[in-house]
UniProtKB/TrEMBL annotation:
Residues 225-508 form the YjeF C-terminal domain. Its EC number is 4.2.1.136, 5.1.99.6. Keywords: ATP-binding, Isomerase, Lyase, Metal-binding, Multifunctional enzyme, NAD, NADP, Nucleotide-binding, Potassium. The gene is nnrD. Bifunctional enzyme that catalyzes the epimerization of the S- and R-forms of NAD(P)HX and the dehydration of the S-form of NAD(P)HX at the expense of ADP, which is converted to AMP. This allows the repair of both epimers of NAD(P)HX, a damaged form of NAD(P)H that is a result of enzymatic or heat-dependent hydration. It comes from Hymenobacter arizonensis (Siccationidurans arizonensis). AMP binds at K418, G419, A420, Y421, T422, G447. This is Bifunctional NAD(P)H-hydrate repair enzyme. Coiled coil: none annotated. PROSITE patterns: YJEF_C_2 (PS01050), YJEF_C_3 (PS51383), YJEF_N (PS51385). Homotetramer. The lineage of its organism: Bacteria, Pseudomonadati, Bacteroidota, Cytophagia, Cytophagales. Belongs to the NnrE/AIBP family.
Length: 508
C-alpha cells in the first residue's frame, strides 16, 4: 500500500472527484460516513455521553460538521464549537447549512474556550492535511486547552496541528488524540515514534479513492499490510528436495552468547531453509549439536569466538553477527566474507547474498571502509542505535529516514531499521514500513530470530532480494503477534517467536 504526501492527497481527492463524476461535497459525505461508521462501532450512544465536535474553517472542519449531522441523526448528544475564520471552504458552508437547527453550535473565542469536562468525548476536526504552518494564536490555545483537559479525543484524518509528512518543532501545538481515523491510506506521520503521543491508535477507513491515481503516483513510502503479503511465499513444489531451497551458512556466537546463535539457527530452520550449516566457536559445539540436530555444525578453531572463514563454495546465502562479539579475528572474518561475496565467477554469476546483524554491524560502524566492499543487495538489520553507528546521530525520526534512504542508495544495500513499523530501505530509494509486530518483541533475541528468518529466505533462489526481506520482516512480526496471543506482551521471549514462524508463514 502506498503512503502519499499531503500534496498528493489533495490531488488524489481531485482525481477521485473527476474520475467518479462526484461533487466534492459527495466525497466529503463519504469521508464523514466512513468516520461515523467507525465511531458507531467504537462508542455506542449510551457510553458516548455528550460529544463535542471542534471544527476548523477548511474541509477537515467540513468533515466535522457532516459527522455532527450523522451522529445527531443517530441519536448521539452532539454539540459543535466553531473556530472563527475570515473564510470557509465551500463544502464547509454546505455542511454548516445542513446542520439540524436543534444541534447546538457555538463560536469559539479567546475568552470563551469550550467547556471540556474530564471524560468528555471530543472529535477533533480543526485542521487536516491542509495545515500549511504550525498553529498559533487562538487555534493553538484551543489545542492546548483540549490537551490539558482529560477528555477522550478522536481526530478526524490527522490530529490537528500535526504535519502529514514533515518534521516540526517539539513545542508546537498539536492535538493529543486517543484515536485517529484516516481515509483510505495511512500517513507517514502515523508511523514515526515521535508522533505516537499525538496520533494514538490509528485506523484507516476506505472511501474508494481513485485506485488509478494511486497506482500512477510515485512515492518513496510504502506500507506492507496483509493484502500486500498475500501469496508472498511460493508454495513448495511436489518434486522439490532440500537442494531446491538453498544451503545457508550462519556465522554466529561467542562465549556467553551462543544463545544468540541458537535463536538464529532455530529461526532459520523454521523458515524453510533446505540445509543449514552453522559455524560456532569451539565452546558452542555441544550446545548446537544437542539443541539443533537439524543443523550441521562447523567448529571454529578458536574456543571463544569466530576467527576463521570456512570454504564458502557450498552456500547460497551467509548470515553473520548474532552473538559474534567484536574480536579483531572476527573483524578479519567479516572482511574476508565481504571480499569473497562480491567476487563473481562463471559458477556464481551473482554476488553471494549476505545478512549482516548485531556485532557485525558494530564492526562495520567502527571500520566504515568495509561498507564499500558490500555486494549489492546485502541485507543489514540494525536497530536505531546500530544504524547511527553506521551513519550519524539523527536529529529526529524524519532525518533518520532520510539518512536511511541515502545509506541504502549509496551502498546499494537493503537496510532493515528495526522498531515499531520496522522500515526496509531499498537500493532504489524506497522505504517500506511493516505493519506486524508488537511491543512484546522489544526483548533480547528478537533480532537474532529475524536474522535466521532472513537468512533462510535469502537462500531461497525463488525470491528476489527485496521480496525475501519484506516477507521475512512481515513474517517475523506476525510470528510475534501470534506468540503474544498466548504469552501476552510481557511474557513473550524470542523463542516464542521462533515457535510461531511456521504458523506465520502459513498465512502468507
Ligand atoms: N480524501 C480525503 O482524505 C478527504 C479529505 N477530506 C478532508 O479534507 C481535509 C483537508 O481539507 P483542507 O480544506 O485542504 O484543509 P484543512 O481543513 O486541513 O485546513 C485548511 C484551512 O485551514 C487554514 N490553515 C492552514 N494552516 C493553518 C494554520 N497553521 N493556522 C490557521 N489556519 C490554517 C487554511 O487557510 C484553510 O482555511 C482532510 O484532512 C480531510 O479531513 C475531505 O472531506 C474529502 C476527502
Ligand atoms: K483533525
Amino acid at each position: 500500500m502506498k503512503i502519499l504526501s499531503a500534496a498528493q492527497t489533495r490531488l488524489l481527492d481531485q482525481a477521485t472527484i473527476a474520475e467518479q463524476h462526484l461533487t466534492s461535497t459527495a466525497l466529503m459525505e463519504r469521508a464523514a460516513s466512513a468516520f461515523a461508521e467507525w465511531f458507531f462501532g467504537r462508542f455506542d450512544v449510551d457510553d458516548a455521553g455528550e460529544i463535542l465536535i471542534l471544527c476548523g474553517p477548511g474541509n477537515n472542519g467540513g468533515d466535522g460538521l457532516a459527522v455532527a449531522r450523522l451522529l445527531y441523526q443517530a441519536s448521539y448528544a452532539v454539540r459543535v464549537a466553531l473556530l472563527p475564520a475570515a473564510q470557509h471552504s465551500p463544502d464547509w458552508q454546505h455542511n454548516r447549512q445542513h446542520l439540524p437547527a436543534a444541534l447546538p453550535v457555538a463560536e469559539i473565542s479567546a475568552d470563551q474556550l469550550p467547556d471540556i469536562p474530564a471524560g468528555l468525548l471530543v472529535i477533533d476536526a480543526l485542521f487536516g492535511t491542509g495545515l500549511s504552518r504550525p498553529l498559533e494564536g487562538l487555534p493553538a490555545a484551543v489545542v492546548a486547552h483540549l490537551n490539558q483537559a482529560k477528555a477522550r479525543v478522536v481526530a478526524i484524518d490527522i490530529p490537528s496541528g500535526l504535519f502529514t509528512d514533515a518534521p516540526q518543532a517539539a513545542d508546537t501545538a498539536i492535538v493529543k488524540a486517543d484515536h485517529t481515523v484516516s481515509f483510505s491510506l495511512p500517513k507517514l506521520a502515523f508511523l514515526l515514534p515521535q508522533n505516537a503521543e499525538y496520533v494514538g491508535q490509528w485506523h484507516v477507513r476506505d472511501i474508494q479513492l481513485s485506485g488509478q491515481f494511486i497506482a500512477d503516483t510515485a512515492t518513496p513510502w510504502h506500507y506492507t499490510d496483509e493484502a500486500t503479503m498475500r501469496g508472498a511465499l511460493p508454495a513448495r513444489p511436489k518434486f522439490s528436495h532440500k537442494g531446491t531451497f538453498g544451503h545457508a551458512l550462519l556465522l554466529a556466537g561467542s562465549r556467553g552468547k551462543i544463545g544468540a546463535a541458537m535463536l538464529a539457527t532455530n529461526a532459520c530452520l523454521r523458515s524453510g531453509v533446505g540445509l543449514l550449516t552453522v559455524q560456532v566457536p569451539g565452546c558452542g559445539y555441544d550446545i548446537l549439536q544437542i539443541s539443533a540436530p537439524e543443523a550441521m555444525c562447523l567448529t571454529d578453531p578458536h574456543l571463544d569466538f569466530i576467527s576463521a572463514l570456512p570454504d564458502l563454495k557450498p552456500y547460497q546465502a551467509v548470515g553473520i553477527g548474532p552473538g559474534l562479539g567484536q574480536d579483531a579475528a572476527s573483524l578479519a572474518v567479516l572482511r574476508q566474507l565481504l571480499e569473497f561475496a562480491s567476487t563473481t565467477s562463471e559458477n556464481r554469476p551473482r554476488p553471494l547474498p549476505l545478512i549482516i546483524d548485531a556485532d557485525a554491524l558494530n564492526l562495520l560502524g567502527q571500520h566504515r571502509e568495509l561498507l564499500a566492499l558490500m555486494p549489492e543487495n546485502t541485507v543489514l538489520t540494525p536497530h536505531p542505535k546500530e544504524f547511527e553507528r553506521l551513519t550519524e546521530k539523527a536529529r529526529d525520526d524524519y532525518h533518520r529516514l532520510e539518512l536511511l534512504r541515502n545509506f541504502a542508495q549509496q551502498y546499494r544495500c537493503l537496510v532493515v531499521l528495526k522498531g515499531a513499523y520496522t522500515c526496509i530501505a531499498t537500493p532504489d530509494g524506497e522505504l517500506h514500513f511493516n505493519s506486524t509486530g508488537n511491543p512484546g518483541m522489544a526483548t533480547g533475541g528478537s533480532g537474532d530470530v529475524l536474522t535466521g528468518l532472513l537468512l533462510a529466505l535469502r537462500a531461497d533462489a525463488r525470491l528476489l532480494p527485496f521480496q525475501a526481506v519484506r516477507l521475512g520482516v512481515y513474517a517475523h512480526g506476525l510470528a510475534g503477534d501470534l506468540a503474544a496471543a498466548h504469552t501476552g506482551h510481557a511474557g513473550l521471549v524470542a523463542g516464542d517467536i521462533v515457535r510461531h514462524i511456521g504458523p506465520a508463514l502459513m498465512r502468507v
